Structure formats: structure tokens, C-alpha cells
Amino acid sequence: MSTRNDGVVPPHVDAPLRDAPPVSERPDHVDASLRDARGPASSDPPPEVPDLELLRRIGQGGFGEVWLAANRATGRLRAVKLIPLRGHRADPAGREIVSLAHLEAQLGTRHDNLLDIHHVGKTADYLFYIMDPADDLSGGPATAEPDYRSATLARRLEQGPLPADECRDTARQLLAGLSHLHAAGMIHRDVKPANCLWVGRQLKLADFGLLTAANSQASRLGTLKYMPPDGLMDTRADVYAAGLVLYELLTGLPAEAFPRLGTRAREITSDPELAQLNRLVLRACQPAPEGRFRDAGEMLAALETSPPRPPRRRFVLAVAVVCLLSLAGTASLYFRLPLPRVEVNFISEPFEAAIYLDGAQLTTPDGTPYTTPCTARGLPGGRHHLLFRHPERGDYDAGYIDLTLTREVIVRWD
User: Fold this and answer.
1) Which of 163, 220, 397, 413 is 20 to 30 A (C-alpha) from 383?
2) In 3D, which of 273, 263, 262, 338 has the Cα closest to residue 310?
3) If DSSP codes are grouped into helix, strand and coil, which group holds residue 240?
4) What is the spatial distance between Cα 188 and Cα 269, in angstroms, rounded to a whole number?
5) pTM
6) How would you class 151 by CB atoms within 10 Å of its CB: exposed for 0-12, middle for 13-18, buried for 19 or more?
7) pLDDT tens across 191-250, in order?
8) The Cα angle at residue 173 between residues 168 and 178, in degrees rounded to 5
9) How far apart are CA 136 and CA 131, in angstroms?
């Protein structure tokens, strides 16, 4: 239900949008779900939409607006997205029409975790489509009251991470809706918290304005911080964005902080379901596309696998090798690409173990020693010898681990 926001990056775009202006020439992009308007920006009357009374604007972005509206005959509340038909070189209405046509042609049935679009139409000035309004942030249904705030995941995350019992269910609903699109041969290209909302207390993936057929030629459109570094906009790009959304609901941190666990590190590493969700995030957000889940369906299947029980041996090393490459793929990685600087989660049970990489203690840039659980940033890729030193349990020699292929290392003393 939200409009597209900051960070729309179009090095090339889908026909008929070949003359889209660069970002610097576009209007400021404002996340519609994060901005409430108590009424029109001016004294001008609301736009006219057949059979609906537009009550007030509840979201605004660079190319469109979302209004709360009431059906003139029944009084039922609806959300209406309006996109101007004139005045933009980028022709956002044309792109919306193409995307909605994809959606209508490919989706034979509705899905509980995709926002329903009830009607698409045009006036002399606008393309519009009608949707269910999001619940109120308080948990109740949408109302016409001035204090109504739409319940998006972005707004919910302003209050911190989701409770542990909600994390897995929210992740499951998001991936279920996205996997339905992927199974129909489409990609969303703008998966983010602002485009996840609750209707009837059920999570819905919304805003299909950038939706297109899944193929290697899909344009690089979307919100920059949720785009994968490789730049390929395919199902794996949606997986990358979904991974960052799951990271945010798990940690309460912004996507830019990935993979740091923050103040919730202890809870995440001690709760089997949260730890499994974190491993899912790490794999989904691999820099190389071949290291990620193939699509949201594969990611959903991994989520629905019961988290493993921790082994109970004298010395246990659990290494989450989240980039599952074949031997040939590994050889290609080493011989064709320079080894990157990487970020790795280090977790031990019990906590408070120091970490030694090739005999040198890992420290932050200001010289503070890293202790578990933590995320060490800027580590050199490739194989390194790792040792953990606990003040009570002594040393744990983890052996040689390839940090190019690994984003989480877990050690447990019995």
C-alpha cells in the first residue's frame, strides 16, 4: 500500500520507461508508510475517484499518494493509491499498469499474504487502484479517526524487534506471499518493511508497482539498501531483500547494520528458533547470488524445518557454512575473484570467549577485544585458524575455517 521511496536506482528500466530521469532529477522519495498526512497538502479539494469519497491522505511518495477513502454507498473504508497520468518523464502510471497487468495475468488465485487489489481504473488525471486499508497500529481495524496510523512492519519496528514468538510467524507469512509470486514467475523488486502490512491481523506483502517477470534482464529498480550487491534483479534479489527484512524484525536494527546482532545477541543465540532464523538470514543475504536460496519457496521450506537440537558432546564445533557451493564453484570463487573483506558472527556457549584469528586476538578498530557473542567486521576472507579462549573453560581450538564461505561460527563447551 505504500509508494516507492528513497533509493530508486534505474541504470536501465523496462519499456516503455526508457527515458526515465536519473535519481538526481527525480522528486524526493518519501516512504509513504512512515509519513502520515492529516489532510491535503493544500486547500485544494481531494481528487475525484468514482464511487469513493477521499477522506485524507495517509501516505505520499515520489510518484504517488495513498488516500483513506469511504465507499459513497456503503461507507466501507478503502485505501486508494493515486498515480498521476501526466507531469512525470518516468511515466510511473505506465509502469504501474504494466506491473498490475503482470499480476493479473499470472496469479490465477489470490493468496492470504498478498494484498488484494479490488479495482484498477483511470480518471482524467490519475491511475488509481483500490485496496483494503491496513489495520491500525494499535491492532484494531482501520478507522476514519484522525489518529489512525496504518500498521506496517516499518512502523512496528520503530518500537524495537518483534517478540520471539512473533518472529517466526511473521517471517513465514512474508515468505509465503513472496513464494507465491516466485512460483508464478514474477519478482517483486521492492520487498521492505514499508511494504509489509497487517490486514485483519494477517501480514500482507503490498505495493506491486515494480513487479515484473523473473528473468536475467529485469531492470535494477527498487530501494537501494535492500538491493543485493551483485545487481541482478531476480528471485535471489527478492530473497536478499527478504533476508534483510527478517534481520530487522529479529534484531530491531536497520538493514545497514547487518549482520550485527546488537543487544539481542544473547537471546538470539540461546533460543533455537531465533538462532535458526538468524542462520536463514545469513544465507539469504550472501553477497554472491549462488550462495543464497534459489527463491522464496526454498527459503520458506528451510524456515519450516524444525531447528536442530544442539549436540551434547565434549567439544562441539558448529559452523554455519551459508554459502553452499560445489567444489567447482569454490574453485571459481578463488581463481576468478579477489578474496573479500567479510563480516562474521561468532557465538560460544557459554558466552564471553575471546576470539583469536591466526594467533592474533580480534579487536574492534578502537582496540577493544571482541568477545562472544559478536559480529566481527572487515575480516579477511579465505581459510584462517580460529581459537576461542574462555576465562573459565579454557581454549577451544576450532581449527581452520574458510571465512569466505562462512558467516557464523558457533562453538560449545559441554
Assistant:
1) 413
2) 273
3) helix
4) 31
5) 0.72
6) buried
7) 999 999 999 999 999 988 888 888 767 677 778 899 998 888 899 999 999 999 999 999
8) 125
9) 15
